Amino acid sequence: MQKKLRVAMIGAGQRARQVIYPALSGMRDVDIEAMCDIDPERRAVAARDFAIPKTYGDSVLDYRRMIQDICPDAVFSIGQPHILYDTWMWLLERRIPLYIEKPMGITMHQARSLAYLAQENDVPTQVSFQRRYAPVAAQALAMCRERGPITHALCRFYKCETQPFLGARDHMMDDTVHSIDTLRWIVGDEIDRTESVTRRVGTPDINFISAVLHFKGGAVGHLINSWSSGKRMFSVEMHAPGIFAEVEHEIGARVYRDNDLTGIALDAKEAAQSESFAVYTGVSAAIEDFFRSIRSGGRAMSHFGDAVHTMEAAETILAQAMLSDRA
Fold first, then answer.
1. What is the tens place of the pLDDT at every residue in 151-205?
2. In this structure, are residues 210 and 224 in contact, taking their beta carbons and an 8 Å threshold?
3. What is the percent of the chain with per-residue pLDDT over 90, rounded to a whole number?
4. What stretch of H or E contains 12?
5. 78 phi-psi bin (left φ>0, alpha ψ -120 to 50, beta other)
6. Is the Cα dihedral 130, 132, 138, 144 positive or negative?
7. What is the C-alpha separation between 61 and 80, in angstroms, rounded?
8. What is the sign, positive or negative, of the torsion defined by CA atoms of 167, 305, 140, 260?
9. pLDDT for 211 beyond 70
10. pLDDT mean across residues, the chain
11. Three-class SS of residue 238?
């Protein structure tokens, strides 16, 4: 039996408690040794719900004391990137394997700095772009690739949030990076050039983003992200010669081949063989990939060096929006 990995957590917010803690708690070869959060209520809830023996957070820098006390095999730092950037750099400087949520910082400088330091110090890393890992999406993609390379793909990400979005992150970094990254994964190639259109629909900030991603091998990716739509939805299309798949990662997929109008139905939970939200949405698989990189010395699929390319596409679209504003 392989040795258990000892994990320390930084952050006990909603996202962490919804999927990260449950995913880790469900793994037999992992122990959450300690957690840190400056909010005493969140700290207490996480410690109680997930039976974490040690808690820290009496000061903003208390995570450093936790790391020095625990000497963990890996750290999960889940929270706002504009707050946690210095924490991430501190951990990478000490060569501590690091798992973070998206986005990978909120500027290109931050993303490239993180990727540079991870590579220089040979640190295992992972950005939680979990839609790459959703079992039903992976199954549909494998079926499409049996027919040949992906020719084009579409990602739609809609929400009904019409109020101004005025935090440190914008909608691009908050959500559209997921769409860009998912298209990069589906096509399996690097982006060569980008065309985009952005709008402000009833808000002072950009809340509609449409882009065409031209990949080096000739495939095309389309993304449409809107926060002024009528409901939340994340869905993709994958097209290869003679085959077409529609996927909603949290629900299921339907795959059409050779003019078959009925298609083959795939269920998200059946594909994952689990009722756990963390499992069928891909979070658990993303974490397991990170742990494999620690044990084997390889790289996780969404390591910092790969995720920086998603950030580059996001920044390109924002730069095109700025040029459009000036026109």
1. 999 999 999 999 999 999 999 999 999 999 999 999 999 999 999 999 999 999 9
2. yes
3. 96
4. none
5. beta
6. positive
7. 15
8. positive
9. yes
10. 96
11. strand
pLDDT at 154: 98
Q: Where are the beta strands (DSSP E) in the chain?
A: 5-10, 30-36, 54-56, 74-77, 98-100, 125-127, 152-160, 191-199, 208-215, 220-226, 228-240, 243-248, 252-257, 264-267
Q: Which pLDDT score, from 0 to 100, does residue 327 have? A: 57
Q: How far is CA 200 from CA 103, 109, 156, in A?
A: 22, 26, 18
Cα(184)–Cα(279) distance, rounded to whole angstroms?
22
Measure the CA–CA gap between 25 and 135, rounded to whole angstroms. 20
Taking a C-beta distance cutoff of 8 angstroms, is the pair 131, 19 a contact? no
pLDDT grade, residue 103 (50/70/90)? very high
Q: How far apart are CA 284 and CA 306, in angstroms?
A: 19
Q: What is the rounded CA–CA span in Å between residue 151 and residue 162?
A: 34
| Cα angle 153-131-179, degrees, rounded to a multiple of 5 | 50
Q: What is the Cα–Cα distance from 93 to 300, expressed in whole angstroms? A: 19
- How many residues belong to the chain? 327
In angstroms, the CA 28 to CA 112 distance is 34
Q: Which residues pair with 253 in a beta bridge?
A: 247, 266
Measured between alpha carbons, how far is 136 from 246 in angstroms, rounded to an integer? 11
Quick one: which of 102, 75, 73 has its CA closest to 89? 75
Contact 271, 111 (CB under 8 A): no
